[in-house]
Design goal:
Layout (H helix, E strand, L loop, with lengths): L1 H24 L6 H8 L1 E6 L2 E2 L3 E3 L5 E2 L1 H13 L2 E6 L5 H6 L5 E7 L2 H4 L2 E3 L4 E10 L13 E6 L4 H6 L4 E7 L2 H9 L5 E5 H10 L4 E3 L5 E10 L3 H16 L2 H10 L6
Parallel strand pairs: 1-5, 1-6, 9-10, 9-11
Antiparallel strand pairs: 2-3, 3-4, 6-13, 7-13, 8-11, 8-12, 8-13
């Protein structure tokens, strides 16, 4: 009898502990927007290694298109923007686990991700691009033969690599600072990354890199938000819409790309 009673007490304690943990991690106390307003700040995550969207400059300051967009979105919500930089591999788990309010770090909308999180309206249109060394005899993905390419872990670019027959090996890294260094050092024959990241790399290092062919595919980039937070999704969409209408979005986009990348 003592063993059964002890087992029963253990089950009750575990149940109580689980309920407490769930209560602490759930959004039962309100929409994410409520907690953001109460805290006076919104936390958006990004990798910090995806230039020119979000990266650390020579003064170790986090800068980029995503950073400026996030700052403006926060301003229009009446709160401050608090950036969180984290490895891309696992960034979605961090959002689901409640470590930040959203991901505003150039995340593409995919069916797989939609099963776990919600997304805002797209805030720019991108696509995947093959980047190679300027001195390479590679002008498109069709020219790759027994090649090794680099890409960032956890990105949709891994799917692109699987579709290119000439790729025999894929090396994955934490961010594109590392993939570009691998290419510059000739340790890989190509990098698959975002189109605008590749364009920026060519602009910054015209003697080192070139684009190999057109975009491999197109994708829509949006803000990822935990499910069941409709007010927060609406607030982000409202801010983005206002930025487009009053010209703020175009101004930020011109600053980083010389054009409006939402079109």
């Amino acid at each position: 009898m003592k063993k059964k009673r002890g087992l029963g007490l253990l089950v009750l304690l575990l149940f109580a502990l689980s309920a407490t943990l769930l209560a602490g991690c759930s959004s039962s106390s309100g929409d994410t927007l409520d907690s953001v307003k109460k805290a006076g700040e919104v936390t958006f995550a990004m990798s910090g290694g995806y230039p020119p969207f979000n990266y650390y400059d020579k003064d170790n300051q986090l800068v980029g298109f995503d950073v400026d967009i996030a700052t403006e979105v926060a301003k229009r919500m009446g709160v401050k923007f608090k950036p969180v930089t984290t490895a891309w591999d696992g960034i979605l788990e961090g959002l689901v686990g409640g470590r930040y309010d959203g991901i505003l770090g150039s995340m593409a909308i995919t069916e797989t991700r939609l099963e776990r999180v919600d997304f805002s309206d797209p805030y720019y249109l991108d696509g995947s691009q093959l980047l190679v060394r300027k001195d390479a005899n590679i002008n498109s993905a069709d020219d790759l033969k027994d090649a090794t390419v680099a890409l960032v872990t956890g990105t949709t670019f891994a799917d692109d690599a699987k579709k290119i027959a000439g790729i025999k090996d894929v090396k994955t890294f934490e961010d594109d600072n590392q993939t570009l260094q691998e290419l510059r050092s000739n340790r890989v024959q190509g990098v698959i990354t975002g189109y605008f990241v590749a364009v920026n790399a060519v602009k910054e290092f015209p003697n080192d890199f070139k684009l190999a062919g057109p975009r491999l595919r197109e994708e829509k980039i949006a803000v990822a938000i935990r499910k069941d937070n409709p007010k927060f999704v609406e607030a982000v969409n409202k801010a983005l819409k206002e930025m487009r209408e009053d010209g703020t979005y175009a101004k930020i986009s011109e600053k980083w790309f010389g054009r409006d990348i939402s079109k």
